[in-house]
Design brief:
Elements lengths: L2 E3 L8 E3 L7 H19 L4 E2 L2 E2 L1 E4 L4 E4 L2 E3 L4 H22 L2 H5 L2 H18 L2 H9 L4 H30 L1 H9 L6 H21 L2 H6 L1 H4 L1 H4 L5 E5 L1 H4 L21 H4 L20 H12 L7 E5 H4 L7 H23 L4 E7 L6 E2 L4 E12 L5 E7 L4 E5 L5 E2 L4 E11 L7 E10 L2 E11 L11
Antiparallel strand pairs: 1-2, 3-4, 5-6, 6-7, 8-9, 10-12, 11-12, 12-16, 13-15, 13-17, 14-16, 17-18
Helix pairs in contact: 1-4, 2-16, 4-6, 6-7, 6-8
The structure holds iron/sulfur cluster (2 copies).
One iron/sulfur cluster binds next to helix 13 and helix 14.
Length: about 450
């Protein structure tokens, strides 16, 4: 077993010493994980039109996705985005199990591909780590532990800064780092607190995050069914397990009980006991077992990606459901992408002024009074103009505004005026264009009420 009680403590915590993983799947996981890490560290520094690639400024309620700024007025997109994310998580888990945990979750990526790698480098593989912990406090042990924890703290400080860069942006973060300490005491305390949290998580809490704290992990029991693909041990093929003896006559399964799948497990479980909530689908046990099977000249994937139905002998693999769910997922993601990219630069709500219908003028014209609320959703100030689509109408603004500031909202009241002779029905549909530098960015619809021109018409 790769687990033991922490030396020198009375705690019942079983400290996991995971054997260094290796193999084809681990290599894929490394490539994928390091690519995600690169993206995570690079994204706050990438700017599009002066805005970061991604930013979630909950303090100023400003969010930036792919360089597009979203303000509180775009709440509906975020609500829809959150709903899509929740549906995606559920559908994805029902079909593909906990792949997210093993391959894309920041906790696993940092723990397995960063912190544990440093530990292997300084303290050696799992058995050496255990021996080191059980050894008396020699100078060599203190140096190794000191070096490890200093690096752990340094990386946690780096993660903390990146985390903050996603919230306040790199420019604000740079100011905190370079201005006198007294000017950004709050920011510096936040960085230090986040650093301590990350350090605590990766140096001490570790796999407990996945096995006990993370709510997503605890949802598995509800989300998974017998068609879900999870990492599982093929009991029919593996049992009865045992060491292979030359010339032995009794029937034996493929599992030689070498325990390697348990030794590499970062959550300290034995996958041969069945699907368990603690399994983060990291695939380390698949790699370990595949290497054993290769040596024994037996087919690989005694441990592999299987559904309970498949292992139960059913030929039906549930592919139709996987395809259907994947299609639903793709559709939802496309809708979300469309919502983000089809968002107009200016949002407007046009209303007729309360309690008014029309005003007749001695020069034969008729006017209606309106009020429009305009919101600039871009990251720049916009020169705006209201233009009726039909040339039959003219606009006379009461409180004219030339420029709408970035992220700002403004209310404009205006009269729409028409020659009464041009009016044919009591209610005429009208479209008002909001133009920026002569380009239509939003079209608002309303009605213009007036008695038809020339007719002896009276309102009903
Ligand atoms: S690694 Fe494979 S052969 Fe070894 S104990 Fe695990 S399942 Fe059995
Ligand atoms: S059982 Fe296998 S896949 Fe699951 S966490 Fe352990 S090593 Fe990873």
């Amino acid at each position: 077993m790769g687990a033991t009680t922490i030396p020198g403590t009375k705690s019942k915590r079983q400290w996991i010493y995971a054997k260094k993983p290796g193999g084809k799947l681990f290599n894929y996981r490394q490539w994928f994980g390091y690519t995600l890490l690169f993206f995570l560290f690079a994204a706050p520094f990438v700017k599009i039109n002066g805005e970061p690639f991604l930013m979630f400024n909950i303090i100023d309620r400003k969010f930036v996705l792919f360089g597009s700024v979203f303000w509180p007025q775009d709440l509906h997109i975020f609500v829809f985005g959150m709903l899509i994310a929740m549906v995606c998580v559920v559908l994805f888990t029902v079909v593909y199990g906990r792949i997210w945990c093993g391959w894309a979750c920041p906790q696993t990526i940092f723990m397995e591909l960063v912190f544990r790698r440093i530990e292997y480098w300084i303290e050696g593989d799992w058995q050496q780590q255990r021996k080191l912990n059980e050894r008396p406090n020699t100078l060599q042990k203190q140096l190794k532990k000191g070096l490890k924890h200093t690096i752990f703290f340094g990386i946690s400080f780096l993660i903390s800064n990146i985390f903050l860069a996603y919230i306040i942006g790199v420019d604000a973060l740079w100011k905190i780092m370079t201005d006198p300490v007294s000017q950004h005491l709050g920011g510096l305390i936040a960085i230090l607190l986040f650093t301590l949290v990350f350090y605590g998580v990766f140096a001490y809490v570790r796999e407990i995050v996945c096995t006990t704290i993370c709510p997503y992990g605890r949802l598995q029991g509800v989300l998974l069914d017998d068609q879900s693909i999870t990492i599982a041990y093929d009991v029919n093929r593996g049992e009865p397990r045992g060491h292979r003896k030359k010339g032995a006559e009794e029937e034996q399964g493929d599992c030689v009980d070498c325990n390697l799948c348990v030794q590499v497990c970062p959550t300290g479980i034995d996958i041969r006991n069945g699907i368990q909530m603690e399994c983060v689908n990291c695939t380390a046990c698949i790699d370990a077992c595949d290497a054993v099977m290769e040596k024994l000249d037996r087919p690989k994937r005694l441990i592999g990606f299987y559904s309970a139905m498949e292992l139960g002998g059913s030929k039906k693999k549930g592919n139709t459901r996987a395809i259907a769910y994947t299609l639903v997922l793709s559709f939802l993601l496309i809708v979300f992408g469309w919502l983000i990219f089809s968002r107009t630069a200016i949002d407007g709500t046009l209303l007729r002024a309360k309690g008014s219908s029309y005003q007749k003028h001695p020069n034969g014209t008729i006017s209606n009074l309106y009020s429009v609320e305009l919101i600039n959703k871009t990251n720049g100030d916009l020169p705006i103009q209201l233009v009726p689509e039909s040339q039959r109408f003219a606009i006379k603004t009461i409180n004219h505004i030339d420029t709408l500031k970035r992220g700002a909202a403004a209310q404009v009241s205006f009269f729409l005026i028409s020659d009464q002779q041009a009016i044919q029905t009591y209610k005429t549909n009208v479209r008002i264009n909001v133009e920026v530098n002569g380009k239509i960015v939003e079209t608002l619809k309303t009605t213009f009420v007036a008695p038809p021109g020339g007719a002896s018409w009276t309102p009903q």
